Backbone:
């Protein structure tokens, strides 16, 4: 199966879910439903994230880690 994330306008939301209801659960599964929020709003909603970003901005570049040295 493939996973797709969509933003659906409120004006067609009910019609869209009516259409999805015509597929079997083996064909289409609704994994999650939520209201859209921008990336910025999402990050701001995480407790302590804004302070963490402000702190990181105040660090000197010499304290940074180069891309090849990041532990992914």
Residues:
């Amino acid at each position: 199966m493939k996973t797709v994330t969509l933003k659906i306008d409120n004006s067609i939301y009910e019609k869209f879910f009516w259409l999805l209801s015509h597929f079997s659960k083996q064909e289409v599964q609704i994994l999650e439903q939520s209201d859209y929020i921008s990336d910025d709003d999402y990050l701001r909603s995480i407790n302590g994230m804004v302070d963490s970003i402000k702190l990181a901005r105040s660090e000197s570049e010499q304290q940074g880690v180069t891309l090849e040295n990041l532990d992914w």
Remarks:
- The helical segments are 13-20, 39-45, 49-58.
- The chain has a mean pLDDT of 89.
- The radius of gyration is 20 Å.
